[in-house]
Amino acid sequence: GRAGEKGSSEMLTVIEMKGTPIAVLPRRYVEEHNLLHAAIGVLVHNSQGKIYVHQRSPDKSMHGGYFDMFVGGLVLAGEAVPDAARNEVKEELGIEGKQLDPLFEVVWLG
User: Fold this and answer.
1) Sign of the dihedral defined by the CA atoms of residues 22, 25, 29, 30, in that order
2) Nearest Cα to Cα of residue 42 among 107, 87, 77
3) Pair 27, 74: CB distance under 8 Å
4) Nearest CA-CA partner of 104 in 81, 80, 74
5) Per-residue DSSP letters for the chain?
6) How far is 67 from 27, CA to CA, in rounded Å?
7) 11 phi/psi in degrees, rounded to 5
8) Measured between alpha carbons, how far is 45 from 69 in angstroms, rounded to an integer?
9) Distance (Å, rounded) from C-alpha 54 to C-alpha 25?
10) pTM for the full model?
11) Beta carbons within 8 Å of 88's beta carbon, 6+ residues apart
12) Rounded to an integer, what distance in angstroms lies between the CA atom of residue 99 and that of residue 7?
């Protein structure tokens, strides 16, 4: 399953600036060569509109130990963006069956 694929053995789709797929490569290679790939971030709030904020694990390769208002992760090869968003919310928070509404898209060249 997806949860069992975490780490360098994950396969990611490398994309062009407009989102067109170019290749499927191992995550480690994609990160080492700073290749463009899809990721998602989900802003989670409760019924009072309070936004969920958490502290990232210090072991994360990007922004370890920082506070974050998004639940997120990488879109695996062959995975649709909405599915990736639902999967990350389930993996990280145990929340299922809630409607997720797209807010925006951004290209970040870290």
Assistant:
1) positive
2) 87
3) yes
4) 81
5) --GGG-STT-EEEEE-TTS-EEEEEEHHHHHHTT--B-EEEEE-B-TT-PBP-EEPPTT-TTTTT-EESEEEEEPBTT--HHHHHHHHHHHHH---S-------------
6) 24
7) -105, 135
8) 10
9) 30
10) 0.83
11) 40, 42, 71, 72, 73
12) 28
**The token pair that represents 15 in the structure block:** 């994309």
For residue 89, the one-letter residue type is: V
* pLDDT, tens digit (0-9, with 9 covering 90-100), for 6-39: 566 899 999 999 989 999 999 999 999 999 999 9
- Tokens 């694990």 — which residue? 57
Q: What is the pLDDT of residues 70-107, one digit of tens each?
A: 998 999 999 999 999 999 999 989 999 999 999 988 88
